[in-house]
Structures are given as C-alpha cells and as structure tokens.
UniProtKB/TrEMBL annotation, chain A:
One protein family per Pfam: BPD_transp_2
Name of the protein in its database record: Branched-chain amino acid transport system / permease component
Classification of source organism: Bacteria, Pseudomonadati, Pseudomonadota, Alphaproteobacteria, Rhodobacterales
GO molecular function, one term: transmembrane transporter activity
Keywords carried by this UniProt record: Cell membrane, Membrane, Transmembrane, Transmembrane helix
Superkingdom as given in the UniProt entry: Bacteria
A cellular component annotation (GO) from this entry: plasma membrane
Database matches in CDD domains: TM_PBP1_transp_TpRbsC_like
Stored InterPro entries: ABC_transp_permease
Subcellular location, record wording: Cell membrane
Main location: membrane
UniProt topology in membrane: Multi-pass membrane protein
Residues passing through the membrane, by range: 12-33, 53-75, 87-104, 110-128, 140-160, 200-220, 240-264, 276-295, 302-323, 329-348
From TrEMBL, chain B:
Family statement: Belongs to the BMP lipoprotein family.
Pfam family, one: Bmp
Alphabetic keyword roster: Cell membrane, Lipoprotein, Membrane, Signal
Biological classification of the source: Bacteria, Pseudomonadati, Pseudomonadota, Alphaproteobacteria, Rhodobacterales
Organism encoding this protein: Pelagimonas phthalicica
Domain ABC transporter substrate-binding protein PnrA-like: 35-320
Main location: membrane
GO cellular component: plasma membrane
Signal peptide residues on this chain, from the entry's feature table: 1-23
Protein name (record): Membrane lipoprotein TmpC
Entries under CDD domains matching the protein: PBP1_PrnA-like
Topology versus the membrane: Lipid-anchor
Record localization: Cell membrane
Amino acid sequence: MDKMPAWADAVLVPLISVFLAAAISALVILSIGENPLNAFSIMVEGALSSSRGIGYTLYYATNFIFTGLAVAVAFHARMFNIGGEGQAMIGGLGVALVCLFIPWPHWSLALLGATVIAALFGAAWAYIPAFLQAKRGSHIVITTIMFNFIAFSLLNYVLVNMLKPQGSSDPATARFPEATHLPTFQSMFSTADNVMFRNAPANVTFFIALLACVAVYLLIWRTRLGYELRSFGQSETAAVYAGISPVKITIVAMLISGGLAGLMALNTTMGEAERLVLNATEGAGFIGIAVALMGRSHPVGILLAALLFGFLYQGGTELAFWTSIPTQLIIVIQALVILFTGALDNMVRMPLEKIFLNIRKGDA
Amino acid sequence: MTFMKTILGSAAALALSAGAALADPALIYDLGGKFDKSFNEAAFGGAEKWAAETGGSYKDIEIQSEAQREQALRRFAEAGFNPVVTTGFAIAGAIDAVAADYPDTKFVTIDGWVDPAKHPNVLSILFSEHEGSYLVGMMAGMASKSGTVGFVGGMDIPLIRKFACGYAQGVMAANADAKVISNMTGTTPAAWNDPVKGSELARAQIGQGADVIFAAAGGTGLGVLETAAKEDILSIGVDSNQNHLFPGEVLTSMLKRVDVAVFDSMTQGADLETGVKVFGTAQDGVGYALDDNNAALVSDEMKAAVDAAREQIIAGELKVHDYSSDDSCPVLQF
C-alpha cells in the first residue's frame, strides 16, 4: 500500500520543495541588502505579466520539456542519461545540415525534415553509450557524460573548420535560408493592431514539445514497449524472466531518450538563432535532469517543472536587468530550486509520509 | 494587499528608474563574465575609469545564454540607454538583427563586425591582434636562446589563431630558423579559465625546448605565466599589461586596449561616431608593454628592432598576414 496519496506525492512534495527553496533564496537576497519581495515581483512581472515575458519563459520551457522527457524515458528503464547536452548538440548539427544544404520550399516541410534528422542525430549519439552499456556493461552515467565532451569537441571542429563562413571569426554557421525560418509566436498570434509576443523567441517548436509530452505518455503507459521499459526499470531479473531482452530495452530506451534530447535543437537552432552556434544547448541538458526529477518522470509533471524553470530563467534575466543582485546569486537561486526539488527530495518526502501515516492510523 | 502594493510599487520604481537612466551608457559582457581577468574585465576597467572620471553612472549585465544577447540589447535600447556597448564577436549577429529597430540608439560592438552600410547606428571596433602579436613575436624570437618558442591559445577559434599566426610571423622575422610550438587549451569555453591545463601545456612546451611562451588564453594564461616563472623561462602576457604578475619573468605583454575602446565610446556618449574603427598599431590599440618590471629583459637592440617594425607597420611598409582574412597561416599549421 502507498504511504501517502498520489496527489500528495505529485503535488505537495514539489510545492513544499519550491517553497523552501524560495524561502532560502529570500534569505540570501536579504543578506546582500536587497528586498526579496521586490525581487520576486520583478521576476513575476518580467516572466509572466507581458506576452513578451511569457514568450521568453515558454522558449526556455520548450528546451526543458525536451530534455526533461529525454531523461524521464531513460529513467523509466532505470538508466541515468546525463548526456542530453551532447545529444542536443549533435541534434543541432543535424538541424544545421538539413537547413543549410537542402533547398526547402516551405518552413513546414523544413520543420518536418529537421525534426526527423534532429531525432536521428540525437539518437545516434546516444547509441554508442547505450551499446556499451548493453553489451559491455560500461556505466551509462560515465559514458554519456564523456560523450558530452566529445560532442562539444566535434561540434567545435566542424564549425571552425567546415561550416563557418570564411572570414567570420565567430564559430557558427551562416544564417539559415529564409524558407527554413519557423513562425514565432509573434507572427502566429499578433493581429494588425495588437502585436503579441513582440520579439520573443518562442516559436512553433513549443507545440512539438507538447506533442512530445503526449507521445511519451502514450509510449510509457499505453504501449507494450512502454510496459517492457517500465518492468525492466522496476526489476531487471523479473523482466528477463518475463522474456524481455535487457540489451534491446537498454538500447531502445536510450535511442528514444537521445532522440528527444536532439529535438531540443529545433527550438534553439532553427527557431531562435536561425544558425548553429557553438553554445546552442546552454546547459539545458543538465536542467532536464532536475526537470525530470521534479516532474516525477511524468509528462504532465515535466511540463509543469519545465515551465517553472523557464520562469526562473526569464525571471532571473529580469533580475539581472533591473536590480544590482549579481548574476552569480541569481544562479544560486536557480541552483537552490534544483537542490531542493532534486537532491533533497527525501528531506520533504519522509516527514510528509510520516504525517500521512499518522493520519491514517488515527482514522483506523 | 501588501503584496499587490509591492508589485505595483516596484513597477512604478521600474518606470522611474527607466526614465532616470536616459542617455546613460550600458555595457553588455560576453559569456565568460565580467571578472575573467582578461577581455571582459578590461572592458569593465574602462567603464569604471569613465565612471570615476566623469561621475557618470552606467548599467552593465553579464548574459547567461545565447537568447539573452538580443534580449539585453532590446531591453537597454528601449529603456533609453545610449550608447549600448558590447564585448565579444558573438553578439554581432544579434546587433545586426536589432539595430534597425532602434535608430536613435548607438550600438558599439568590440571585436564584432556589423555592416555600416546596413546599420548607420552601429560602431564596430576591431583590433589588429595580428600586428600586436607580431611585435611580441619578434621579441620572443630575439630573446630565445634555444631557438624554440611556444604559443598557448585558449579556445581553438579563428580569433586565437589570428594571435598565433601573427606571433609566429614575428618570431620568424627575428629568427628565420626558429621553431614555433603552438597548442590550444581546449575546444570548449572552459578553455578560457583552466590555469592548470595552461601550466601543463607550458611544461610540455618547455620539455620540447621552448624558452619563451606567449599565452593568449584569458585566465588559462595565468597558469602559463606562473609555470614559466617557476621554470625560469620567459613568458608573454596578453590583453592587459601582465608584466607585474611575475616581475622580471614576463618578457612583455601584448596589449589589446579594450578598456580604451570602452572608455572612448562612453565618453563620446550618444553623439558617438559610428562606422568601423580599427584599433591597430597606429592608434595604439595594440602594442607591447614596457615598464619597470621588464626593463631589464628588453635589450636596447630588441627595443630598436621592435620599434622599427612598429614604424614600418604604421607606414604600411610591413604587412602582417591576418589569419582571418583567408583562414590560413603561411608559417603555422593548425
């Protein structure tokens, strides 16, 4: 029997964690002589009160949804894919190749092509660690994190020596042709006399992220593969006894995971920058771990957690603009949320479980 | 209720401060941050000097992500900051995208290039790093007894290859038989701040016979300079004058006057002259550092030769090959 009701596990624990993180952040802000309420209202105002702020929040959230889902899928098979960063980078390389070298007639076709290639490239990058884990037992945590560095070096090499326009000192590709530019929220939601989401980077990729959430839900809880994945994650020996091949599940789970991480590049590379820059992933692969942990590896939870982190990113930027709180402290605030929702999860969960057990005893 | 008040209050304060900020300059640092002991910190130094001398105030921000480049430019332009000064070549693309939307705001890109015909309100400041590197390369070639000198770059990007190529040409000009060993610290931005790796590379180059090493690697360079001092060979600093870090052990520093560029831009304020400005040898934008700390290391002969080369570069008689002009270097393989 569960120790506490599902709603408490899914809602109460993260909420209390976020609240604790916010309280400690407030103390930190107080200690450097700024007003935490003021800081909080700047964050809320900057991230949520205008359509432009929301546009930025959703842009960041889109990245985190993809990487969060990537971590979650692997996590259901009890694997810790911390290579989302590298898989997204290689996905970005795929997107750049598709956008630069194929003359697309229309953005929708370009998006379709780029989606397939980004997922394939990301999956391919995850394949090698997956193969090593499945066949050789090399630990996936070690190999995926090492593959992040290899991805970065590879990308740097390709950009500096092959894809960079000659004479440019910026290690980035040329701008993608006009036909591959994705519609932004501004062009989708603005009317003639009311410009919405002005200049915000949120784009059509957000809806692909939502589709990915649905797809992952269906995959994990409504398909045979998802069932195999979860049973493998729960108990490998039981799964083997039930005729599930550990090699196959390990590789398939990592391929799906890598593909999802690769899709993130659609948002940053095709949607926002419209060219491939060296630093396109910006740590979103790692934030994805926190997002997946906080969202309990469930697409709905991941969506909410990604929105929270999108808010923290955009709100943090606004803090940097309008207060004298140093950037490092803003990172501390973001890190506190990760710490409390990810690492210190049990600190909140255990006392809460005790409380619920006591309540039940009282009922009985 | 009180919370609502706070929100409204802060909104009002925001509006007020935005008004008060009118015509103050703003400074956007590149990724890597304000206190990188190198490029961005030099920009910060120039801004601080401007603030101290004029009593003016400025707003600065360290961006954390690519998407924030455009965001920061727009927010500062909309709040009335003028000019908006930026460091690093990576932001040039974002300026290209936003400049036309704010015709009354002047943008300055240090190290970046924006087409002046397309955007009349942008000033691109470029440094002739290859010329400055050539000059210190000559000094290295003359100071070296073993005939082997080293170069330690930060991240392997075209800009750093430009440094390396100019340096190698200078070394060859002083000693045609010299050997130049070139190493890059890495391929990620972490390469800008890895003094331990810098120290390792310096040791490896010393092992191959190098007795002068030029570090163009941001914070990583500190490790190079320190190891060189410990092993009792000469080193060359970069960007700021780093001679004082290890007095008597640093041959010279290749100066890149980012601080002067920022100071000038802020001093000119909203009336800034736009276009493309090259901070070359002639403008004292790049050069070599000579002070009490390295006076004993620089012989009269060395000084005479370097100053002669400097004059020749200014007069246009001596052309130093610029790596970024054709992405290749005649004297050094990457």
